[in-house]
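USER:
Before I trust my own judgement here, I would like a peer's view. Write it directly below this note and I will take it from there.

ASSISTANT:
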Amino acid sequence: MDNGVNGSVKQTVVLYPVGGVGHVGPMTQLAKVFLDHGYDVTMVLIEQPIKSTDSGAGFIERVAASNPSINFHVLPPIPTPDLATSPKHPFLLILELMRQYNGELESFLCSIPRARLHSLVIDLFCTHAIDVAAQLGVPVYKFFASGAGTLAIFTQLPALLADRRTGLKELGDTPLEFLGVPPMPASHLVKSLLEDPEDELCGAMMKILKRNAGTRGVLVNTFESLESRALRALRDSQCVPGQVLPPVYAIGPLIGKAGTDKAWHECLAWLDAQPDRSVVFLCWGSKGALPKQQLEEIAAGLENSGHRFLWVVRTTPAGSDDPKRYWERRGEADLDALLPAGFSERTKDRGLVIKSWAPQVDVLNHPATGAFVTHCGWNSTLEAVAAGVPMLCWPLAAAEQKMNKVFVTDDMGVGVEMEGYREGFITAEEIEAKVRLVLECEEGRKLWERAIELKKEAGEALEDGGLSQAAFLQFLSDVENL
């Protein structure tokens, strides 16, 4: 396959994610795969209209600095409305903004000689760019940074909603049947998809989901043995009757590697002093801020369990029960004010509480880590799978986390749920019980055996000749043969 490696000029792949850590991060891992196969890669970004600590501001600069082989191109700014004061939902405004950038995207793509331009790879929320690619005759593919199970549901959902006059919210926890996945409680779908189909936000999401068919194929951040049932469904002609779906390429797990983060952290030295598989690691992702009352329950549960723990604390401002308000300020949590009196002193010999951030991939791959309390974001899920660590599933309300919880517990068999997540509050007794279950009981031993099995399969998938490697090579071949 001639990608220009043996010639004078390499072919260029253009990646186009919507901004934000959860989109740019996985797309960066995809960029590394293209680089490994000899392609030039340019990641095209837009100026974010809203700056916040979780928007990706600063993160993108760090990513660019640590990945000099990737070209980062920010499209010229265009006049935009004041998103902060607009009555429209921010998501709708971002979608409209991406559409308005089509002209700038087209100009950039035209600046690359057509013979050099290999393909345009967009993420889920950049579907307006399909029109640009079609106009220029550029092969366009979608990169789905979540799992195949979520993609299977998203693919089938428009047909389900087309037969309903009302939304799915009224169904509560009623299980919905989709091809390729376990029964999914209606309440666990992405929040915007539960609204009335006539709702503007729900309608916008439906248009996005339907446009998968407008691409040449979908690259999915998963691997065959992890989600074989969902992948089979996506390749089944009956998945969406009357519609021919594009090819699906399972090319994951695309995650960061342990030991690549240059920032040393005290928790790694602390873990070095702990016995193997003895520590429960608690971290709820970049947006996992919890109110003080919940933090007190966690502290009590960990203390009563008697087990070692490494706990990353993000919290709301004092007096606030709204986790979103955490991001209105910068600064770190005052642990003494948040945790029960004497907790730190009583647990100092077996626990470490840290503020805001930990090198998660390094922690999960450390021999001392025995369990992972997680919000079930897909990146975190894959990182735990690749590290061979069982999960205690505590999904929050955001995105597809509750769906991922069902996949982890019911399909993958590598985690258990923390009861109470549906109500948004988990007791100290539940925390203690589940920590003990994973670290002490026979059920926990079986979870560990399954986790080690999946770790082995994840590694094999990425090896030369592995299924994920083969899927990526098939994708390259398909582009060449268009």
Observations:
- The chain has two domains: 12-256+464-480, 266-460.
